[in-house]
């Protein structure tokens, strides 16, 4: 059993790593889906209220709330799969929740990319609302994520993938990690 947790700032490549896993038939549990579902349950727009609802869930149910809501989904996937990828870890408390649940079977991978490159990617992606449309700036998103404890979570990573090359190169790296484990990567 291996649970690969992905951590990184917005636009670093977390979703792309999840896409690679899905293409390899590795189940993906996306923690952001928990938040997006809660937005809809509260009658809010996930594109503009994602951050507000993420803060509210943690305030109402504790800093591990989103990880705890993700655990049953991960455990269900592990019943029929050897590997599950968890996309969107945001804090050290969430890392500790997964370490406690999965022990040595949990591998935390940081995906890193420079600010300017992340900003370009997010602009191209077009999934997020712009500041003009009521969304957050990347600087504000980074600050919010770090406020959850993301910096501490990234510091806890077992390995870091620098996502500064081509998309194809990044995809190859993620495939190698999933197929052969972290020891197969030149670090």
UniProtKB/TrEMBL annotation:
<keyword id="KW-0808">Transferase</keyword>
<protein>
    <submittedName>
        <fullName>Adenylate kinase</fullName>
    </submittedName>
</protein>
<dbReference type="GO" id="GO:0016301">
    <property type="term" value="F:kinase activity"/>
</dbReference>
<keyword id="KW-0418">Kinase</keyword>
<dbReference type="Pfam" id="PF13207">
    <property type="entry name" value="AAA_17"/>
</dbReference>
<dbReference type="InterPro" id="IPR027417">
    <property type="entry name" value="P-loop_NTPase"/>
</dbReference>
């Amino acid at each position: 059993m291996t649970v690969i947790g992905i951590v990184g700032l917005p636009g670093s490549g977390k979703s792309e790593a999840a896409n690679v896993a899905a293409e390899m038939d590795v189940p993906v549990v996306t923690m952001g889906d928990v938040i997006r579902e809660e937005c809809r349950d509260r009658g809010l727009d996930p594109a503009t209220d994602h951050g507000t609802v993420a803060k509210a869930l943690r305030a109402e149910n504790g800093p591990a709330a989103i990880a705890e809501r993700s655990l049953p989904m991960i455990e269900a996937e592990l019943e029929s799969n050897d590997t599950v990828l968890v996309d969107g870890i945001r804090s050290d408390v969430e890392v500790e929740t997964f370490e406690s649940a999965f022990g040595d079977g949990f591998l935390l991978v940081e995906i890193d990319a420079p600010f300017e490159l992340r900003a370009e990617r997010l602009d191209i992606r077009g999934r997020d609302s712009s500041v003009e449309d009521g969304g957050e700036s990347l600087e504000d998103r980074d600050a919010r994520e770090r406020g959850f404890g993301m910096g501490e979570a990234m510091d806890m990573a077992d390995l870091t993938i620098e996502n500064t090359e081509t998309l194809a190169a990044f995809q190859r790296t993620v495939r190698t990690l999933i197929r052969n484990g972290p020891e197969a990567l030149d670090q």
